[in-house]
Amino acid sequence: MTEKIDDQELQTSTTPGYNPGEKKTLDEYAQLDSNDESLNKWKASLGIGAGAANENGPKIEFISLSLESATRPEPIVFNFAELEGKKEHIKKNPVSIKEGTEYNVKLDFKVNHDVISGLRYVQVVKRTGMTVDKMEEMVGSYGPSQNPYEKRFATEESPSGMLARGTYSVRSRIVDDDGHIYVDFDWAFKISKEW
C-alpha cells in the first residue's frame, strides 16, 4: 500500500533575499551586453544566440531518472516518455534496493528553446505514515542545447538492518525557480537483502 505524500512536504527551500529576477526571452538575453566579447562567448556556450535554440518541442524534456549502483549490473530507470501510462504500476510495484548499498541518482534531460533557471529535484520518502527522508537537490540553470544534459547527485547509502527492510512510498518532483512543476510522480521502493 502506498502512502499519500502531501504537496506541502514537497515545497522547496528558499534563500532569504534571493530574487530570481524577471523572466527574459532568449532574444532578450542575446541582446544584453551584446558588445562584450567574453560575455557573448559565455552566452553561446549556454545556447543563447542566433541559431542556437531548437524551437521544436517543449522548452524542456525530461528523459529519465536513474538509480545506479556499482553492485547492480543494470540501473533502475524511470523513462519519462513512458511514465504517464505506468504511474499506477510503479506506485504499486516497488523497485528493490539492496540494503547498505551505495548508489547515485542521475537525471537526464534536454533544454530546447528557453533558459531554465534554478531547476531542483525534490523527493519525499515515507514509511508507515511518517516522513523518513526529504532530499532537495539543486540541478542548476541551463540554456538550450542539441545534446542532453546529465546531472548526477551525491552518492548515498541505502539503510540496512532488519528494521530498515520493508516498503517505502516516494514522491518525486522537478520544479524551477518560478515554481513551475515539470515532473511530479509517486513510486515505491523496497529495502531487501538483495537487488
Automatic annotation (TrEMBL):
The molecular function GO annotations come to: Rho GDP-dissociation inhibitor activity
Question: What is an annotated GO biological process for this record, any one?
Answer: Rho protein signal transduction
A GO cellular component term found in this entry reads: membrane
Gene3D superfamilies on file? Coagulation Factor XIII, subunit A, domain 1 (2.70.50.30)
Principal location: cytoplasm
Top-level lineage group: Eukaryota
**The entry's keywords:** Cytoplasm
User: Where are the stretches annotated Disordered?
Assistant: 1-25
Subcellular localization? Cytoplasm
Pfam families xref list: Rho_GDI
Q: Summarize the protein's role.
A: Regulates the GDP/GTP exchange reaction of the Rho proteins by inhibiting the dissociation of GDP from them, and the subsequent binding of GTP to them.
Q: Which PANTHER family match?
A: LD16419P, RHO GDP-DISSOCIATION INHIBITOR
- Name-wise, this protein is Rho GDP-dissociation inhibitor
Q: Which organism is it from?
A: Wallemia ichthyophaga
Organism phylogeny: Eukaryota, Fungi, Dikarya, Basidiomycota, Wallemiomycotina
